[in-house]
Amino acid sequence: MHHEALSEALPGDNVGFNVKNVSVEDIHHGNVAGDSKNDPPMEAAGFTAQVIILNQPGQIDAGYAPVLDCDTAHVACKFAELRKKTDRHYGKKLEDGLKFLKCGDAAIVDMVSGKPMCVESFSDYPPLGRFAVDSPLTSYAFSYTLWSARENPMERRCYLHKELLKEVFGTTRFKSSAPNEM
């Protein structure tokens, strides 16, 4: 969709836009664009997620730090605490105080990012509230973020004027992830 005039962009569409006085070298995959006056994008110190393990050989213990793909960000995050095992279909609690997760398990886990990144709850911003865990051979987990510990607004963020966001995207509610690379 680059170099094409669009009347509307929908969630999941990859679009490009120009911002005056911002060099292309300052923009990286996963950067966040948002309205500075209305719920601006922020870093997440940590987040709680519902994780379903799909194709993991072996087990996942607390402290395991895989690379997560959240929107266009690619960041290592640690499984800080395995809080409780849940039913994959209904979300009912099955077991507290987990020692490990294995293939087929669903659980609520606390995660800590190795680098600053923008993660939001799935109910607020679906594209920033889901992630996948990848290995070189296969994807083996996916998740929905239930809660994000938002901190101070990210430094060196590219703010866009509200009217420009409305004109380009048809909405002022737009975010991406991985602000640390700006």
TrEMBL record:
It comes from the Eukaryota. InterPro entries: GTP-eEF1A_C, Transl_B-barrel_sf, Transl_elong_EF1A/Init_IF2_C. GO terms for molecular function: GTP binding; translation elongation factor activity. It holds the Pfam family GTP-eEF1A_C. Keywords: Elongation factor, GTP-binding, Nucleotide-binding, Protein biosynthesis. Residues 47-133 form the GTP-eEF1A C-terminal domain. The keyword Lyase does not apply. Belongs to the TRAFAC class translation factor GTPase superfamily. Classic translation factor GTPase family. EF-Tu/EF-1A subfamily. This is GTP-eEF1A C-terminal domain-containing protein.
